[in-house]
Specification:
Length: 60
């Protein structure tokens, strides 16, 4: 799963706070933008079955 929201890869060095964008480069400094957060994954997801059931129920 990939997020469309990206963050400046050099924000800690070049900015006071994170700079978010939808593009491939930072609009403020021109540095590369990277995925803002990795998708959460836990192989031992204790509540995954219930979460997926709620999601299916919501589509019906």
């Amino acid at each position: 799963m990939r997020s469309d929201i990206r963050v400046c890869a050099a924000w800690r060095d070049a900015h006071d706070r994170p700079v978010y964008t939808l593009g491939d480069t930072c609009p403020a400094c021109g540095a590369d933008a990277e995925n803002s957060a990795p998708a959460p994954f836990d192989p031992e997801d204790a509540y995954g079955e219930y979460r997926r059931a709620l999601k299916r129920r919501g589509r019906e």
